[in-house]
DNA repair protein RAD50 (Spathaspora passalidarum), 1307 residues
Amino acid sequence: MSSLYKLSIKGIRAFEPENEETIQFGFPLTLICGQNGTGKTTIIECLKYATTGDLPPNSKGGAFVHDPSLSGRSNVSGQIKLAFRNVNGKSMITTRTVQLSKKQSRGSAAATLTFKTMEGQLTLIEKGDKISISTKNSELDAQTPIYLGASRSILDYVIFCHQDESLWPLSEASVLKKRFDDIFEASKFTKVLDNLKNIKKEMATDIKLIEQSVQHLKIDKDRAQRVQDKLVSMNDSVDTFTGEIADLNIKIEQKEKEAEQLFVSNQEFQKTLSDYENLLMKKKSLEEQIERIKSAIELLSDSDEELMDKKDNFAAITEENKNKIQELQQTQAVLNSELKDKSNDYNTLIRLDGSLRAKKSEYEDNIEKISDLIATNAEMLGIELSGETNDDITVFGSEIDRRLKSLLKDEKKLLADNKAIDSEKQAQVQEILTSISREEQHQEYATADWNSNNYKLTTLKRRFESLDNDESVLDSRKRELADATKKLDEKKASNEIKDLDEKIEKSNFEISKLDIELEELSKKVLLSNKQSELRSKVNFLQESIKTKNASIEKLIKSTEYGYQKLLGKKVDVNLGETVLNEKISDLETALEERQRSVIKLSGEVETNKAMIESNRKAELENIKKTNNLKERITKVIEEEEIDNYENLVEELEENYRNVMEDVNTSEVTKHFNVTAISIAEKNNQCLLCKRSFEADSLQKFIAELKLTVDEKKIKAIHNQSVEIKKELDDVKAINLDIINLRECQKQIETFKSIKKELQEKESLLLEQLQQAKVELQTQQSSLDVGLNLRRPISEIVRLNTEVNDTEMQVDELSEELNDFGTVVLSYSELQALQQEKNSLMKEERLKVNNYTESKYVAQRELQRLENRVKDIRLQISKLETSLSEIKNIKDSITETEANLEKLEKNIDQSKITLNELNSIKAERITTLKQVQEEHHHAEKMIHNDVEKVSRLSSSFKVLQEAIFTFENHDSVKLEENTSKMQQVSSEIDTLKDTIEENLSSVSALEKQVYESSRIEHNIIANIDYRAQLRKLEQAEFEINGIDIENAQNRKEEYQEKSRKLRQEITNLTSQHAGKIGEVKQIKDQIKGLHKELETEYKNVNQAYHEEWIKLQTNMLVSNDIQNYSKALDNAIMKYHSIKMEDINRILGELWSQTYKGSDISTIAIKSDVNLQAKGNRSYNYRVVMVKNASELDMRGRCSAGQKVLASILIRLALAECFGANCGMIALDEPTTNLDSENSESLAEALNHIIEYRKAQSNFQLIVITHDEKFLTHIRGDRFTDHFYRIQRDEGNKSRIYSLPIGRIQDS
């Protein structure tokens, strides 16, 4: 059930816009008081606006908002926050914001005010988190009353009724009817009845149309049946032909099997023919291969065994030479490594030599600088120079150290003397300042004491004049206390309240007993009518099931295509909605991912564009650097040679090595050729292969060897080596530029590659972005389809659930009918017993009301006596305290006057002393300043001398230290490094010579290996040639062994048998095709008939059945609507009569408890039935009073006080009847126009209501009044410990204060 928690107001009426004012509503009572005009009614207005959105009466144009003129602003924002618990116990907050703007109009002195309603908010607090439900004001207006559990009319007219509209129960008849109709929501039910009548009228027309449709469908149904009979006959013919076709299929299969067996049986001769052809191809391939080998080799006459031996020997010799080459290459690698290490050492020594020579140059400069320094400053220091640099340096260093120490000593002494003098003078000044400060403090203390005592004296005199010192009043109050206490004790001793409580309890027990008996009678009455009601319910529910199933089928047909397209399956009436919602959720998730992907790709496209621009700028810088490097490099080599720089260097190094090898090889070759000539002439054989020469070849060989020995060629090779060495050194010098150039060129390619990649990436990203957008649109389309399906699928599931529930209800009602029992008494007898028990209960309730009234009277009298005793005791206490306080005040006044006189004397003496001390202070401060200026000048002069000599000493020592370091350390290192450089250079030359010798040996061995490899290859080729000849002989042997003639004969026999079988299969296939053609014609006719059924007579049986069911259903529904209209009309009447009876019962009880006059015994609300033209009922309302057993209309016949009281009680009764879930009500100035007795009785009635309903967890009574005496009579201290007071502050703004309940009567 709902309840209010807290209200916050800012910028409304007199509440200022800067700060919030809050009220926390308690249970069961909240009291708010304040003088007229302080803003009490604003609380009700804010509650009403927060819950319904309705502005207070007469507040158009912005009167509800704090006026901007009062705050000096152009616009003011007002805000109302209401925290409450909804009917489910959840915490919620509704926020309403309004704005009032002031704008000066042209040509008018008056400003124009503009009122605007801003966006509000309704939030739910769930587990500490705020969940926004709505921000639209229209939705807040509709939803807030629902969450509070009360209609808008109840909130507006009953719970938060404005003071200006509080007398609406006694307004004119049309206004009263409208408000009661709103409270009963009569217009809603009237519209329902009108709609039911319109529906029944429309259904009568539909029934006539459906009857005609049923007749037409019956004719089509008969025609369709005749077409179906013809289809049956044609299907029989198709079955006959189908059997014949099956027989032909069997014969065709048999012939195909015979052909297959014939094929299998003749595979042997096919294999023979295939082998013969393969052997012929193999022979041809071998012949071609033999010819190819023969043309590429030199044929040897040796046997196969001799060829294999030669092959093995050549392999051993070749392996030995390869091992030697490998050993020499390993040695070469070691020598190259040593040469590289020595070169690195040599380069290190060269760098060190350069560093040391630079230090030597710096040393010579330092000697010159120190000589100039000594010569320049010798006269200042009083030194005679000898001309020897070392002696002059020693003498100058000693003298400058002595002079610096002397100056520092003099400076230190001067500073110490000056500091002592300054300290003495400052101490004298500080002494006089301390005396002045102490005297000023004494004067300040005396002045403060004088002011304090003077204020105290004034306060005491004012207090003395305000106190009452009449002791006779105290005695009179004590006598009144004794009388009041005696009356209170007598009242308590009478036990009147206890006796009344016992009587009330006894009557309540009787009422409970009668209530139980009435309940049993009601059960018996219900039992007698239950059987007939159950049967009618079963029939109604069964017809409802049929109607809902038809609706389900119709909805499934309309949604099946879209549903199956989206989900790939048919609609499931049980799980269809769940599956669809899951699909929609997946589609929404996918849509969000696509949206994020599009955003991400857009960002990547922009980033890629920025990277392309950055790459372009870097590429331009790199091109500029490349051009500068090329300009330096092309001075040494050609531009086209830059890319092959390493090859060029290697080529030059290789040329240099080759030239050096040629130089060495020429000598070796010369020696080798001489030896070869000698061996050839002597032994007639080759030096290498040991083969003998024929007569002609020997002379030719010797002549060729002699030609190779040429001295001029050897000299030319040596000159060429010198030129290549120079070119190699020049090319190596530009190595660093080449490296930088290549780095730049690499970067050019890198930039181009990056540019290309970025452009490709941009194209790819744009393509991906376009694709993502297309996918996003596709996803959105699928989601739209799913969302469009959601409502009909939800309706299908709902109807199916209702069908299942209805079927369960039918089963339960059927079981209940089976269990139905009998009733002992008749219906009339049971009604007579009910009337008898009701009469007894009314009598007992009347007794309880009388006893309760008597009890309230007794309690009120007792409370009045107790309050009287408390008031007198408080007055006596105040008088006693006042008399005691007067004596103490007189003594304090005398003492304070004496203190004031003494303090005035002390202040005068202190002023004289301060004048004398200030004169002395001025003289001493002047003396101190003069001394400080003299000391500062002397200290500055000596400090300048010290700084000058210190700088000179520092410079001299730096130069002296640098000279000493070079003479004792760096000069020795320079000599040692020069010696090491010479030694390393010699070692490098030795290594180079060794490397050249090793390279010559490797070249000679590699040449031998190459020649051996050629001879070995020829031997291996001869061996392979002879192997291919043997394979050719084997193939010819296998060809001669095949019987090719027999295989050819068997092939011809197979071909003849195969031809005959193919002819038989062709004939059978022709017959088969003819049968199939006839079947096809019949099937085409069947298809035409089917098409006719599917077009002209499609679903004719179903349509006829559905229309017939629809006709029967509509007829039943029409009857049901008629019955339902009558039942609803009767239910509305019964509900109205029950509610009016409850309202009048509560109203009568409240009036009897509250109204103390004797002219009106009770009041009631009468409702007169009025039949309208359409047959609907409406009600006219009036408030009547009973005078002398006669009913009279109250309007125009009662006093203002009676109007107020009747209106309040009617609102209380309506709140009791219509606010079960919303147990709150606010009363604004309920005592208006009431005399003291009726005001007191209203308070007692409210007290009784609170007492009765305080057990209800959500009951809240909010009372707003200026009559604090009325609040006392409510006895709020029994239900709350505080109350709220609203009053204006010094800025005339409304403020809310929470005060203890005990201060409720404080003014």
User: Anything to note?
Assistant: The chain has a mean pLDDT of 77. The radius of gyration is 64 Å. The chain has 22 helices and 15 strands.
